[in-house]
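Let us practice reading a record.
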Amino acid sequence: MDTTPDISAAVRRLYDTFPFPPDPLSDEPPPGYNWRWSWPDAYNFCTGQKPPKLDIRILDAGCGTGSSTDYLIHLNPEASVTAIDLSSGALKVAQERCRRSGAREADFRHLSLYNAAELDGEFDLINCVGVLHHLPDPIRGIQALAAKLAEGGLMHIFVYAELGRWEIQLMQRAIGLLQGNKKGDYADGVKLGRQIFASLPENNRLVKYEKQRWAGENQRDECFADMYVHPQEIDYNIETLFELIDASGLEFIGFSNPGYWQLERLLGKAPELIERAKSLTERELYRLIELLDTEISHYEFFLGKKPVVKVDWSDDKALLAATPDLSVCMHGWPSQQVFDCNYQLVDLSSAEFKFLQACEVTQKTVGEILGNVEMGLEGVRSILSKQLILLTPCDRI
């Protein structure tokens, strides 16, 4: 028996009751940035180069109340953006959010991910954050989206991880048991869940985990409902995650928080263990990392539809001939102290600062800029590794 319609209806009722995310509406553009939603920066992360075109088509698949849609529109002024969601209530908030922020008009559709085939054409960038794990059939969902991805296009995905959400799962089940035949009354579920937390001993593991990780955002009922009374959730581990990825037929490009997936972060004091881990496959290495650090509560990653052309800039001649541009996801410029795309503070040397200034005001090649800046190619590669610049290969100029 196919329960998909019943589950989808239950998910729709939750988000009609508690539109998510509950980010406040504003009469200004959204604050800060998320480079994963900037096409030039996402393309650069995935391929090592500036994209050949900016007038692309973007799909925000499962946009909710439009926080991601708002960013996608403002960070990609030349792109056309389509946003779909199962909840009509959330879509109304999304439309009002974008209207108030001054975002140009997006194409909002009341549509399930499963029915993405109803959309015209293909998309160069598909954003699907916090959605697939709420589908009764995530494989069907990711395949529907993959079919709408253009050749050379990218998909950014965010799904839950089971190890870091173990305590959440326990509370979800406890609330469900106590709700009994009232399960599906989401307002009652939120009230009941808050009562449970308030009644448990302070040293209770569930209480301590909630206070440590989630209490701030869960002050809002919308967040509490999304976390603890959601009618449908599938949590992944590395093994089941790659089953989902493989089923998409797309190329796994990499996690968009690569620093987390470095074994040296955990076992750096034991080089002999690092050496032994070299015999592991990439997926085995990822599994080892999550087993050793069970705090991960989600995975965020990029997939691509071949051909995705990549450049590593190891060739000095190619790097010298490339043309650099500044990343739009750099805060505090112009200054010798800037925040990179991940909001990490970067102290620029005088030469690095001068190099970036030249990137901003000229369309010269790396080699031409270095003729007036006392810096070598390794300095350029260092700036590139921080995602402060985007490079265009000479054969595209």
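A brief commentary: The chain has a mean pLDDT of 95.
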